[in-house]
Amino acid sequence: MSSSPIWRLLCCAVLLSSCSTVSLAQNTESKAPPVMNVHVHAIDGTFPGVAPMCPNTSKFTSSDPKDKEEPFGWVKEQCTPALYPSAPGEYMKDVLAEMERLNVTAVVFGEPKRVQKWKDAASARIIPGTSFQNGMAPGQRVALEELRKDFTTGGFKVMGEIGLQYEGVSPSDPSVDAYFALAEELDFP
Questions:
Q1: pLDDT per residue as tens, the chain (189 positions)
Q2: What order of strands is seen across the sheet that includes strand 35-41?
Q3: d(Cα 188, Cα 168) in Å, to the nearest integer?
Q4: Which neighbouring-strand residues pair with 126?
Q5: What does the alpha-carbon distance between residue 6 and residue 105 come to, in Å, rounded to a whole number?
Q6: Residue 107 pairs with which residues in a beta bridge?
Q7: Residue 115, exposed/middle/buried by CB under 10 A (0-12, 13-18, 19+)?
Q8: In 10 A of CB 127, how many CB atoms?
Q9: What residues form DSSP beta bridges with 159?
Q10: DSSP per position, 142-189
Q11: Rounded Cα–Cα distance for residues 26 and 146 (Å)
């Protein structure tokens, strides 16, 4: 009876299913799949804002251009789980720990010295980025040669967080042409 075709087929099926289960178990990764985040701010202290924040709000809200935008930029509603800010001085450490846990690589933007601090703390997870904005004052720009140095010798890879819309300036405004020409010349996004 052990040589019947049905018996052999049944044995093969059992053997294959047990091998595939063992094979799947052996190839199971404990590491999360990779994630790319393209919008992280290099903040030294605690993330500014109102706590707690809700990660999944029930609706998308937009600002009326005629009204002053809320400074915190989040919908105020109760939620579970609510997100609370890091302890003072722990923001970078907490964000980098979550990036490690969730296998995130991030483009981190900000003032070059702050971004470098993040890059030094987690070089494999950080893609450094900066802007031609010079602080929060509208119309203030980083000198073109300083930005060139950031990208040619400072290790920066992405120009972003430009924020022209907050100034009411179009990206096609001639006042920013030289910055986009620099990005094109140096071939960075």
A1: 444 443 343 333 333 333 433 444 455 567 899 999 998 989 877 655 556 777 777 766 666 666 665 555 556 677 788 888 888 889 899 999 999 999 999 999 988 999 999 999 999 999 999 998 887 777 889 999 999 999 999 999 999 888 888 788 899 999 999 999 999 999 999
A2: 35-41, 104-109, 126-130, 158-159
A3: 25
A4: 106
A5: 52
A6: 127
A7: buried
A8: 19
A9: 130
A10: --HHHHHHHHHTS---EE----HHHHT--TT-GGGHHHHHHHHHHT--
A11: 51
Joined together, the tokens standing for residue 80 give: 């579970």
Kindly state the tokens that stand for 90.
């722990």
The tokens for 50 are 């109102």
- Nearest residue to 51 (alpha-carbon basis) of 21, 24, 35, 72: 72
pTM: 0.71
Closest C-alpha to 94, from 46, 50, 137: 46
